[in-house]
Amino acid sequence: MRRGAVRSVVVAGSLVLAGAGPAGAWAGPEADVAYHGRVSLVRGQLRVWMVPRNEGPSALANATVRVRLSADLADVQEPAGGCARVGAREVVCETGPLPEHGRGRHIGLVLGLRERPAEVAVRIDTWWNGGASDRNRANNEYVVLALDTGDAYAF
To answer: In this structure, what DSSP letter does residue 97 have?
Structure first.
């Protein structure tokens, strides 16, 4: 019998299995989470607006999206409801319920940056998938380069 690696994450006091055994060995629910939105940067302030979507086949009670930046966040932040700063360059937000073939709540972040960079790379991905497997990770991992022009860059 071949044994695969098991990774786990503690989220809000619960132990969540992030992956177990060889590919296809996961017997839990499956959901295909994706994010669509836009990013803009103007004078040291980054705005991120997105809507999570679940392509199914299972509904999720909640998931967590992570936003990582190539620049440090300012010391003082006012995170949006359901969001928290988790590092010098990271914010995580809960999606809320994701019905099968439906949308989650709109997530809007206004993040102050420590400096006023000419550009910021913004990485958006799923940090926790509500305990479900996701066979199509290509549609929930994005890198967006935002220039300090105020223009909106879609993902």
So the answer is: -
**pLDDT for position 27:** 57
- DSSP per-residue string spanning 106-155: -EEEEEEBSS--SEEEEEEEEEE-TT-B-S-GGGSEEEEEEEBTS-EEE-
In order, the DSSP letters of 15-72 are EEEEEESSTT---S-BEEEEEEEEEEEETTEEEEEEEEEEEEES-BS--EEEEEESSP
Give 106's contacts (C-beta < 8 A, 6+ positions apart).
49, 50, 51
What does the pLDDT average to over 15-37? 65
Task: Tell me the per-residue pLDDT of 74-108, one tens digit each, with 9 for 90 and over.
Answer: 999 988 999 999 999 999 999 999 999 999 999 99
